[in-house]
Amino acid sequence: MMFSYDFKILIDGKLTRPVRGGLMDVINPSDNTVFTTVPRCTAEDVDLAVKAAQSAARQWKNTYIGERAEMLFRLADIVRSHSEELSALETAQYGGPISKTRNFDIKFVPGELEFIAGLGRAATGMTISADPDARVMTVREPLGVVGLISPWNFPLVTAVSKLAPALIMGNTVVMKPASCAPVTVLKLGEYIVEAGIPAGVVNIVTGPGPEVGEAIVTHPGVDKINFTGDSSVGKRILSLAAPRVMPIAAELGGKNAMIVLDDANLDAAVEGAVYAAFFNSGQNCGSPSRFYVQAGIYDEFVPRFVKASSKIIVGDPMDKNTMMGPLAYMKCRETAEAYIAGAKRAGCRVLLGGAPPSDPYLARGAFVLPTIFEVYDNKTELMQEEIFAPVVGVMKIASPEDAPELVNDCRYGLSASVWTSDYRLGMLLIERLKVGTAWINQHLAIVPETPWGGRKESGWTKENSVLVLDEYCYHKHIWIHMSETPRTFWEERIKL
Ligand code: NDP
Asked: What is the per-residue pLDDT across 37-82, written as a single tens digit (0 to 9) for each?
């Protein structure tokens, strides 16, 4: 059913329409029909947004941080008061089950705003004992105008995880959500006005990445880009930013591993595998999609993993009992099906799924059923490429020692987990994994307090935790020579 609402972009404190008045469709992935329309901006709108952000920058930077924090707290309250509406919109636009958007996304967002607002107020600089005649320190300074470009898999969560630290550290922003799921970020624009955040501090534009996203990246008034998305898009953004040597924060793709050792608690490992692999239909940058299972537990773990996964309820994401909805749009389903076909051609054995859904409701939408392959070669595409769908490979390993090499033999380095009763062994293995996050007997545990970000082609930026503040400020080093006697530093050190 078409959702009729006049979504507006936010520029210079005004909820408005693009200069050229364009619109674009947002498709409901459950039935592949138009869900609603949203503004389709062009580079002209980006220019207005950046100029508004530049004009607001000085005043925002000089606003007492406690006041900035209060505005973020107000925004959190407003988001909370709209949680039912926001979770329904989130589910409708990208297909995440309502149980997930209601209980995770829309609870995470105000929590993140409040956490970061408080955290920012505790940010400090350093004093350094560099010279008895000097007082040496670092002070944090905002970057200026930051472009925030976010993906669709956690549309509001990812956008707010960038917005909150950018604002608390005194930056102004131009945000661009993903085109297939922009609706909740546009609603956020309305709440930003209501929260009293001054005009120009937050600007929101919508439109295709190659046009509107690139207009943000290449705009000379933008001082940094914080991007989350696919690694290939990240590389494109890096190349666009290179001529200006503009800093880029990049949270990119993942091909995450789960290592299950012989001494693992089988119940916990099976439950953890099902949840982490298929939560949000596997569309999580941190979801495990390659499993390395030790020979002694393989014949018990794999059938139980397959059986438990076969019980996942796939269906209408608005139904509170649904555990897996559709993928975000039809192209994602086509991509997943191509990888499934490729895995079959490569000789991987289907243990579960692997065929399009026969149910007429599911067949119409972007649904992919939980799919598990047995894999014999770590070099197969299935074990190397990010599929971003509920499609995983399971491979038998002889010894725990085999795991680090197999995990590291991949261009991504986002996350991995080890399932074992031997924490010492688990820790020793983790120390050899080239990933940003590693868990023991857990996977996909992410809270505002913990840093998130990868290595290798998964990017290098940290989101969340105290570390995120450094992504949104410069540490300026200041040296004050205090002595009445004028002398150069080098006179002392090098007796010329
Ligand atoms: P995309 O890279 O396709 O898109 C992300 C954002 O970038 C969207 O807003 C998109 O706009 C925009 N964009 C696309 N092309 C350009 C361009 N040339 N210049 C500037 N901006 C552009 O990612 P998805 O939305 O498909 O999200 C899934 C990806 O995100 C996966 O690879 C996943 O692993 C990754 N991800 C990583 C996380 C991490 O923490 N490491 C967390 C979450 C997701 P438009 O939608 O209009 O194309």
From this structure: 999 999 999 999 999 999 999 999 999 999 999 999 999 999 999 9
pLDDT digits (tens, 9 = 90+) for 146-194: 999 999 999 999 999 999 999 999 999 999 999 999 999 999 999 999 9
CATH of 9-252+459-477, one of 3.90.550.10, 3.40.50.150, 2.60.210.10, 3.40.605.10: 3.40.605.10
Q: Count the neighbouring beta carbons within 10 Å of the beta carbon of residue 379.
A: 11
Q: What are the structure tokens assigned to 377, written together?
A: 């070669």
CATH 3.40.605.10 boundaries in the chain: 9-252+459-477
- pTM for the full model? 0.97
Q: Report whether residue 176 contacts ligand 1, using a CB cutoff of 6 Å.
A: yes
Calculate how far, in angstroms, residue 64's C-alpha sits from the geometric centre of ligand 1.
Answer: 34
Say if CB 287 and CB 253 are below 8 A apart. no
Q: Which residue lies with its CA nearest to atom 43 of ligand 1? A: 285
CATH superfamily of this structure's domain 256-440: Aldehyde Dehydrogenase; Chain A, domain 2 (3.40.309.10)
Query: From CA 302, how far away is CA 307, in angstroms rounded?
Result: 9
H-type alpha helices, 409-455: 423-430
Catalytic residue among 90, 112, 114, 251: 251
